[in-house]
Design goal:
2 copies of one chain form a homodimer. By secondary structure, chain A is α+β, with helices and mostly antiparallel strands. In chain A, about 45% of the residues lie in helices and about 10% in strands. Chains A, B: It is a peripheral membrane protein.
Chain lengths: ~575, ~575
């Protein structure tokens, strides 16, 4: 079972149970299954322990190593971007270091493939059911060879995120297929659906309605709205204490039953959702981090990120109601059997990708596709500009927090110290009329030192929450190029089919079908955009209010401290 | 009449009417009389105009140039420090740049000799009476040759600040004279007085009483207390507009008559007071400044300095009542004749230096000189420590102001700008539910920009006044080494005389006289120290209160601005 691997980078052990390795060092692995991104093995000095999977390359003859696949955002499926042809913009082009408060080394990030249940890298032995999942032929990639004509076989992992529903339909289209088999339009199932290749049985419970609202198409509201709290992140251990993880207590309001979930569960769920919903912006879960995962700041930041994520999940009319999310929220943490059943069911879900569009019901009146195009273009420009400004606000707030913690604190504390120093001089005069002033100046010194500390504590109260919000929206903004790409792909097919009809190469009926299906995709896309705007206005309003309230409290606290100091002079 | 001079430094003309010169350049002067520190002449390129007197050395055969005599503090008479022998500490050793907000080039400072009416450098022709003053034999220095046995003749100017009363007394002492003829003890007249060499007719009106107060010896309170406002600094011109000066309106409360005074009048008065009162800490007038004298900031700063100075003058029981100050406050600015009479009277005042001590009347019970010595030592340590801390507070506040004006402003404005940038992105969505948020975010951006401006304006309100106070006290603290030196000199004479009596070299009666006169000096010194402490407690109390009140208003202003911004979200 022992495998050999080569270290790609230096890694210095930071915690008990970890081993250090040098670049190019050969490591013996006990398993190629990583455990939350960690591999167990021994280094050339015979030390045994854990090391980050992303730091090593497993040595084998048929290697297509997917370990060193980095992304700035957590949980973007490998197949989520066009690998061969960047036809749409990836908006966020700023270096990660300028936009995240605690930038992680790129090597320490993302190395798993949420879209790939078969790889099961992130599942550990407590419910490692990868062997049974591997029995499913559709999962190992063999079933999709027909899609891989122009892609290297090494991409088999990523292409497993292609629509499973698509393969079940017979191709009857005469409209040409996209040459780029790795475009989002293709991978999301958008193309297959538009070309009429998707088919499946849609249960009533699976129906997703787009309705015409005051501002245009919108998702039908969730008739049973709920929220879910995330509390008490607690450290748990396994492997005789060698490895630890954090467990979160989730309590949805509609069941009031607490369930315990780990980050990897969120991660798994996220992968399911991305696979299932081609034109829905699934909120990103907080980023992975290899080191310092048990530090208080990190745990607190991740919890805040998960709370925001949960908030976006429960307030999304489609995501909140979907089976896999409900399974995640309601399945007892102790009932392993039920969990596994639900997990397998979700992984076998047929109404994903192309078939997802089958579940959408729209208003009877079709959209004006020209109007749709202009609205989509407008939204594309909006997201581009918002992404730029979010990056800028993020960088500014990050710097603002840093300045408050360092420079501002220092200045106020220096003022405090110099008043204290003055007081020390004045203390040398102990005449009765001096004593009151001496005490008042001493207190003033302390007040300024306290104000210095206020500046250190403040960013946690206002800047951090605002930056958490920005991080979530940065995730959404990276989703939209793909969503827009799917809609635009569908629109292109409509235009092509019209041309074919004009040229007599296609039946009008077939073109009508394409237009109808493009209409469905457009309704869904516009509903999602509407949801995005409404959520954005709601979130930014409440967070700006929170930010300002906290800033006001902060300055009031300073004022209060200074007023206390001023009062001391009354008796001086 | 034309004289030649050599430039000591490069000087670049900054204002109309000035001429530039290079180091070593030969200049033709039209007069060696400077006008408020400026000489009129022409440079080697034939340009005619003004240049700073301190930048040139007048070329003549008998030169002992006193022009290049610099001091960090304005108005410290050249003779105010021991030139040959630094027997007492000069407390303020920090470089000027670290303790003044607007450090002047040392070359541009002080080049006149307030203790020297004969030089009359600072008097211009509108009442230039130097020829008549020069008629007085005591002024030109010749009368003091007996004091100059061990000093170079070049010091004649500075030694003219020696007690005029002293020369009128016959030396009858057997206690040895100090070898150092330039020690403050000698120059102030302290030695002459202790040795019984001072004599003069003390009018009742000149009597100065030290009384025993709650906390020890103190000056008898001024029975007619008054204050004096300084308003409306206005620019006046002369020399056909080539030279300008600032005139201040002074209104004392006891006369309610406004008089106009220029800086040079303050300067002249200051010199008289320093000469007259050996153990009184005469507040320093604000520093001279060669360039930028008509800039608003400078005028405002000088006026604030003069107000503080006036406040210390009027609240000092001895200084407030003295004739020369009353003349300065009450003589009509338009009645040149009265002014000149008063001016001459002050310059001829005999009750200065040694004779000043003759005017002091003390309580009957003599002081315990051992106790006095310990109190003086305690005060010496106090002033040393206070001086250190004042330098430190000054440097800190200066830096604090600088940071607020630059760094803090920048951070808040950057936050404001980034919110505005976010608003620009959000403006691209004009749906009705977005408009309120957009406006609110735009306003928030403006609010943060305004807060940035608040930080720029704030130091004027709080830091500057506190620094003005510190500057005044720095002046007092440089006075005290001399005052302490006089008292210690007297005490040493007592000890010497006791020894002489024990050795049979001196009559007991003579020693008693020395002890009695030392008692007078000690009463006066302790009264002055008491006054210093009481004034210090009063001033620092009120200024710390003012500082804190301003800081509170500042943070309340910020809070108010943020509350305005927060309200905008109510309708969003």
């Amino acid at each position: 079972m022992a495998l050999r691997a080569r270290a790609l980078y230096d890694f210095n052990s930071e915690n008990p149970g970890e081993i250090s390795v040098k670049e190019h060092e050969i490591i013996t692995l006990y398993s190629e299954q990583d455990i939350e991104g960690w591999l167990e093995g021994s280094n050339s000095r015979g030390e045994r322990g854990l090391l980050p999977a992303s730091y090593v390359e497993i040595l084998r003859t048929d290697t297509f190593s997917s370990f060193n696949n980095n992304s700035r955002y957590a949980n973007i499926p490998t197949g989520g971007f066009d690998l061969k042809n960047q036809t749409h913009e990836s908006y966020s082009t700023a270096p990660a270091s300028s936009i995240t408060a605690y930038p992680a080394l790129p090597q320490q990030q993302q190395h798993h493939h949420p879209g790939t249940p078969a790889s099961d890298d992130d599942w550990d032995d407590d419910w490692d059911d990868h062997s049974s999942v591997a029995d499913e032929p559709r999962v190992v990639g063999g079933g999709y060879r027909n899609y891989e004509g122009n892609g290297p076989s090494g991409y088999s992992i990523s292409t497993s995120s292609m629509p499973r529903g698509a393969q079940q339909a017979k191709s009857s289209a005469t409209v040409s297929r996209n040459l780029n088999r790795f475009s989002t339009f293709v991978k999301s199932g958008g193309e297959a659906f538009v070309l009429g290749e998707a088919s499946g049985f849609v249960k009533d419970g699976d129906k997703i309605c787009v309705v015409m609202g005051q501002y245009g198409p919108e998702w039908q509201e969730n008739p049973y709205p709920f929220t879910c709290t995330i509390d008490d992140p607690t450290k748990q251990t396994k492997f005789k204490g060698m490895k630890s993880y954090i467990s979160y207590k989730l309590t949805p309001t509609h069941t009031q039953n607490q369930v315990n979930r780990r980050y990897k569960h969120f991660d798994w769920l996220y992968a399911r959702l991305v696979e299932k919903f081609p034109v829905i912006s699934v909120p990103h879960i907080p980023e992975k981090q290899a080191t310092g995962r048990f530090e208080e700041d990190f745990i607190s930041k991740r919890r805040r990120g998960l709370i925001w994520w949960m908030n976006h999940m429960t307030s999304h009319p489609v995501l909140a109601r979907c089976d896999v999310f409900q399974h995640f929220l309601t399945c007892s943490s102790t009932d392993e059997k039920s969990w596994k059943q639900g997990k397998r069911k979700a992984e076998k879900d047929e109404m994903v990708g192309a078939n997802f569009f089958l579940t959408i019901s729209t208003p009877a009146a079709p959209l004006d596709l020209q109007d749709v195009e202009s609205r989509i273009d407008g939204f594309k420009a909006f997201t581009k500009k918002m992404d730029d400004s979010v990056i800028q606000v993020n960088a500014t707030l990050n710097e603002f927090a840093r300045k408050q913690i360092a420079g501002f604190k220092k200045e106020y504390q220096k003022v405090g110290l110099s008043f204290k120093y003055l007081n020390q001089a004045f203390e040398m005069d102990q005449q009765s009329y001096s004593v009151g002033l001496n005490q008042a100046i001493a207190y003033t010194g302390e007040a300024y030192e306290a104000i210095g500390d206020f500046f250190v504590e403040q960013p946690k109260q206002d800047v951090d929450p605002l930056m958490d919000l920005l991080a979530l929206y940065q995730g959404h903004l990276t989703n939209y190029p793909d969503i827009i790409h799917v809609q635009k792909g569908a629109l292109t097919k409509v235009k092509e089919s019209q041309k074919h009809v004009e040229e007599g190469k296609m039946e009008g009926q077939q073109a009508d079908g394409i237009r109808e299906r493009c209409n469905i995709i457009s309704f869904a896309t516009l509903a999602e955009i509407q949801h995005f705007h409404q959520t954005r206005v709601r979130d930014f309003k409440s967070q700006m209010q929170h930010y300002l309230q906290q800033q006001i409290s902060f300055f009031q606290k300073i004022t209060g401290k200074l007023e206390e100091a001023l009062q001391k002079y009354d008796d001086a």
